[in-house]
Design brief:
Elements lengths: L1 E3 L2 E3 L11 H5 L2 E9 L2 E2 L2 H15 L7 H12 L7 E8 L16 E8 L5 H4 L3 E7 L14 H12 L4 E6 L2 E5 L3 E6 L2 E4 L10 H12 L3 E3 L5 H5 L3 E6 L3 E8 L2 E2 L7 H15 L3
Helix pairs in contact: 6-8
Bound molecules: pyridoxal-5'-phosphate.
Length: 279
């Protein structure tokens, strides 16, 4: 069951016009929200970021907060398990002819939910391998836009090389992952790229920093180089569906001892408490 423009229908019955600007131009924005134990995690923060993305590309928000919640809950009532991720996207809508400029259209809303299966701690404790690549994306990475051509190329590269993620650098500065935020820990300080146009301000990024602080780390939202990353005590990535993941190898080079670090262990536990305490 999916949601498309007011209707709850089977996924294979959901279709949109070829004149939808989401199809023609990738002219839309999206969000992904995890649901744990039937409860939507950090809904307010996700809807706030959605509003920011919509405002940035001048698409009107088609729903109020309570309307979004109502639609999500209706969709979730059809889900078979309590842990889900909600994917929802809003495109500018269906035009009459293909042209780059736009007028006021009725936005297209598409929502699907998928089972979310967090990796067990024993699996996470093995750590993950990543590669690095130059950040070739545009200069508005703060907008969660559906036009993700560069990101699909990164994801394919990672898949072909059996890597968890591609970590991106712009002018030798680490920005973020192709689908995640990046953190490095050095001498009990956590570093992560500051928010701004070069990264997506991850909801999990905020939660990771909250957890890191609770675990005794000093937080420093400032840039760092690829070389610093390679010499870090610990490296993590974060996203709504992955939570906080420990990285033990970058471009074939071992991070520290190659074992998952003590701060990650602490942050993992703290994050689980945040999930359990969510309302
Ligand atoms: N950065 C990028 C480029 C992403 O695509 C994502 C998530 O998909 C994130 C960061 C992490 O954001 P969040 O923690 O809100 O899922």
């Amino acid at each position: 069951m999916v949601y498309l423009n007011g209707n709850f229908i089977a996924k294979n019955k959901a279709s949109i016009s070829v004149m939808d600007r989401g199809f023609l131009f990738g002219d839309g924005v999206y969000e992904v929200i995890p649901v744990y134990n039937g409860k939507i995690f950090r809904l307010k923060a996700h809807l706030k970021r959605l509003q920011k993305s919509l405002d940035s590309v001048k698409i009107p928000n088609p729903h109020t907060k309570s309307e979004w919640l109502d639609i999500f809950n209706q969709l979730l009532s059809h889900a078979k398990t309590d842990d889900q991720s909600i994917y929802f996207q809003i495109t500018r809508g269906v035009d009459t002819q293909r042209k780059h400029s736009f007028e006021s259209l009725t936005p297209t809303v598409y929502i699907e939910t998928n089972p979310l299966i967090p990796k067990p701690k024993q699996v996470l404790e093995q750590g993950f391998r990543v590669i690095t690549q130059p950040d070739i994306r545009w200069s508005r990475c703060d907008i969660k836009a559906t036009s993700l051509l560069a990101n699909t190329l990164y994801a394919q590269n990672a898949k072909e090389q059996k890597m968890e993620e591609v970590i991106l650098h712009r002018d030798n500065i680490i920005t973020e992952g192709a689908t995640s935020n990046v953190f490095m820990i050095k001498d009990s300080t956590l570093y992560t790229h500051p928010t701004g146009v070069n990264i997506l301000s991850g909801i999990t990024r905020d939660l990771a920093m909250e957890s890191a602080q609770a675990c005794g780390l000093t937080i420093n939202e400032s840039t760092f180089t690829l070389n610093k990353l390679l010499n870090a005590d610990e490296v993590w990535i974060s996203s709504s569906t992955r939570e906080v993941m420990p990285i033990i190898q970058i471009d074939g080079r071992t991070v520290n001892s190659g074992k998952v670090g003590q701060y990650w262990e602490c942050v993992y536990e703290h994050y689980q408490h945040l999930k359990e305490a969510s309302e």
